[in-house]
Design goal:
This protein has 371 residues and is an alpha+beta fold. The protein folds into two domains: 11-213, no CATH class; 220-367, no CATH class. The chain has helices at residues 11-20, 34-37, 42-66, 84-99, 134-146, 178-192, 220-228, 233-248, 277-281, 309-312, 317-325, 330-333, 357-367, and strands at 101-102, 109-111, 120-121, 127-128, 150-152, 169-172, 252-256, 261-266, 284-291, 295-300, 345-348. It has a five-stranded antiparallel β-sheet with strand order 7-8-9-10-11. Strands 1-2-6-5 form a four-stranded antiparallel β-sheet, with helices on one face. A hairpin with a 4-residue loop joins strand 7 (252-256) and strand 8. Helix 4 (84-99) packs across helix 5. The longest helix has 25 residues, at 42-66. The protein is elongated and about 75 Å long. The model has no long low-confidence stretch (mean pLDDT 88).
Amino acid sequence: MGSHQITLIPISEVARISKNFLPASISNGYSLKSLFRNIADDADVRNSVVAFRDFLHVFFDRLISDGHSYAIPPKIPNSMTDYPFLYNITNLLVDMGYCGKLADDGKSLFISEMPLCTATIDENGKKKSPKIPISSQMDCLRFLSLCGFEFNGVDLDGKSLSFSTEHLIEMKYPKNPETLLGLKVLSIADMELRTDRRYWNDHNLLRCDYRLLQEYEPDMRDVLLDFLHPLPKKIQAFALKLHNRYVEKGLTCINTRLGIISFAYVHIGKSKKALAERSTYQKRIWEFSYSPKDGYCIFVRPKKADKYADVIKGFPNTLQDRITKGYGCYKKQGLPRCNNECQGIKLPLDETILPMAADIQRWIDCEVPSK
């Protein structure tokens, strides 16, 4: 009952999943943080974000058709979607966007430094390899060229990336030059404004997380709608009903990507101490979740089931059985491998859940503390 080998899903499927989670619609009226007003006019910034989102559709389509030639699987994957190429190309784009200088006409991005692609010397005088491996840098540029970017000042047929302040790289996207400004502002947001930890092995930029640019905190209901948009309307309506109900009952909804995409509903209580995202997430009562392994699910973490046993008796047998079985580590349950039951009692968020909708609501009601 030890650890089991993780099976990667094809890079084309990773691309399809990622494409599905791009913002379905982006408001053209949100206010920007002052940081971005200093870069360009508000309308230009908002338009550039849409342009970058549109580029990402092209990017993922290219991954679907050609990704197998670039995204080489690691020998020992850490997750079902663990393709180092995605981390490398994301961080290369951030490097270019963050360090690059936009031309006055906005049609070029001039790059004279790329820290993540450059070897460094540590305090002991020892040379440290660049964070983006030299072997991957040119592959990333070649793939971006395949997606429509043009690079002057670099030989795409070369074996390694080489440039200096006297030998700039000029980056263009002729299909829609506004994309370059979008890359610029989203890279700044990714580097400077992320309140959660910026993980090296994450690909935040590929999500087009434009809400980091907004002056005001986004309405979590709108963020949830983006998450739910691939699902049937009846499922979306059920999910939104639950969201509204438990926010009104005083739970806090937090959106996290700690290995999965989650909208967790937490009872913060009267504590005035601010908790880290992971610590807050550990206090969740229930959540909407998406992972490549399980798809869309609801997870509930009952703590008081023995106190409302009479209520449980009125539920359908399948739901009763799931609650009675409980949840916990697969080792404690005597199972051969992890099935994510430590996350809570898992219910697929699909058409099969609708007949139990009222019972699920009654169940969660029993777990939610009174205001």
